[in-house]
Amino acid sequence: MASTFHKIKRQILVPVLGAVFFLSLASFKNDFFEIAKQIEIFTEMYKQLNMNYVDETNPAQLMDNAIEGMLSDLDPYTTFWTEQEVERAKINSRGEFTGIGANVSSRADKLIIVEPWKDYPADKAGLKAGDEIIVIDGVKVSDYDENAGQLLEGSADTQVEVTYLRQGKEMKATLKRAAVEIKAVPFFEMATPSIGYVVLSKFNEKASRETKEAIKQLKEQGATKIILDLRGNPGGLLSEAVNVSNLFIEKDKLITSTQSSIEKFNRTYLTKRNAFDADIPLAVLINGRSASASEIVSGSVQDYDRGVVIGARSFGKGLVQRPKELSYGTQVKITISRYYTPSGRCIQALDYWNRDAEGNAVRTKKEDYKAFKTVNSGRTVYDGGGVDPDIKLASAAYSPITTSLLRENAIFDYATQYYYAHQYDDLEKIQLTDADFNDFITWVEARGFDFETVTESAFAKAYKTAVNEELDDDIATSYKGMMQAIQNTKKKDMRDKKEELMSLLTDEIVKRYFYREGLYNYQLKFSPEIQEAIKVLNDETRYRKILS
Length: 548
Description:
This protein is an alpha+beta fold. The protein is 42% helix and 21% strand.
C-alpha cells in the first residue's frame, strides 16, 4: 500500500502535468483517487508514446496539444499561459512596456501593423497600418515557429531592423525601441461648454485614477455633466471596475457579486470610498465589444439608476478568471465564477456547459430573458447576457455579419486600400458616402465573400461528412444551391447593417490619417452615440424620465 502511495505521489509531482492545479482542485472536489488515477494513466501513456512511437515525437508539442485538448471543452477564457504570456499579462495590467509602439497582429506567415501609435518608434520610422512585416533582424517571420511579435520586443534604445511589404512593394526600416505607456484614459475633452467626454479604453491599474483625474479637469473647465465612453473596452481588473463605479456611486454599495459551485468564490464587491461625484448627470456609452469590467460598470450605473446607458447590448463576458501558478513560471487562468449586477442579472451571454448538437455554446433566447428591477426606481431590466442599453442605436451594434467581416479583417483591409486611394488633410472632410459603402460591398464581393458565417461553417462540415460517406453525389446540387443562397444573403445582410458597418469603416479610415486622437475628435462631432448622449444630458426632463 505504501509503495503504491509513493508511486502515485511521484507521478503527481511530475512538473509537466501542472500537478499543483490538480491537487488544489482535489481538495474542493473530494475525488482525489480519480484524479490521481487519471494522472497516473496519462503519465504512463505520455512516456510510452515518447519511447515507442514509430516516428520521432516532440514531447513539448505533445504536451501542448494535450493541454489544449483538455481545455477546449471548457470556456475560451480558461487558458494555459507560457512564461512569456504570464509576463505579457503583467505588462498589460501595468500599462507600461518596451517595444516599437504599435498594435501588431499575427496573420498567416506575417505580422500586420494594425495601428502605429503617434510619435512612438513605429510611427517615427514611417510604418503604417496595413504594412506586412516579413523579416525582423534577419529572421523570416514565415520561418519562425513561435510568436514572431516577440522579436519586436527588447530593451529601450536598442535597435531592430524590419523588412515589410506596403501595397506589394518591399521596404526596410530601422526602429529604436522605447518605453511605451498605455493610458487607460487616452482622451478626454469638453463635448459642449457644459458636457465633459471621457474615453476609458481599458481597466488596467491606472483606470480609476486616470478617470477621476480626467473628470476633475473637465469639471474645472465647466463640465456639469459627463459622458463616459466604454465602447470597445474589453475589460481588465475587477478591482478597477469597482473603483470606477465608485466615482459615481456612494460608499458601501454592491457593484457586483460572483457565484460559483465552490463556496469560497462566492463573493460580493462593495464600494469602499465616498463617491467622487454622486450627483453629476451621467451617460455611459457601450457597444457589442464592451466586455467584462465595462459591463460591471455600465451594469451598476444602470441598476442604481445612476445614469443613462446608450448604444447596443454589450458583449456578455461575465465569467471570472483567476490565474494559478504552475511550474517553470507558467500559469493556468481558470474560470472560477460568474458575474452578477446589483439587481441580480447574470452578465454572461453564452453557456459553454450546455452546448447544442454541433458543440456550440448556447445563447439565451430572447423569450427566455428574465426581468429584474433596478435598485432605486424599480425600473424593469432584463438579463440574457451583457447589458442592454436604455437607448439603443444601430450604429453601435455588432451583428453576426459584422462580426464575421471583422474576424476576416475585411473592414481593416478595405480601409488600407481606401487610405492609399484618397488624400485628406482636414479631419472634417472625411465623410463616407453611399457610393463609398457600395464600393465596399463590391470590394467584399469581388474578393469572394472571404468571411465565413457560422451557418456556412456548419453546412461545409456536414458536406465534408457526406463526402467521406460517399453521399455527395446525391446532395451536391442542393449543397451548391444552399451555399449560393448564403452568398446572396450575405450581400443583403451587409446592406441591412449599413449603419453599423459605416460607423466601423469611418472609424478605421479616420485613424489612418489622424491617429487615434484624431478619431476621438472626429467622433465628438459625428458619432451618433455621442450626439445622442449630448441630447439626453441637455434634456433634463427626458433624462429623469428614463431613470424613473
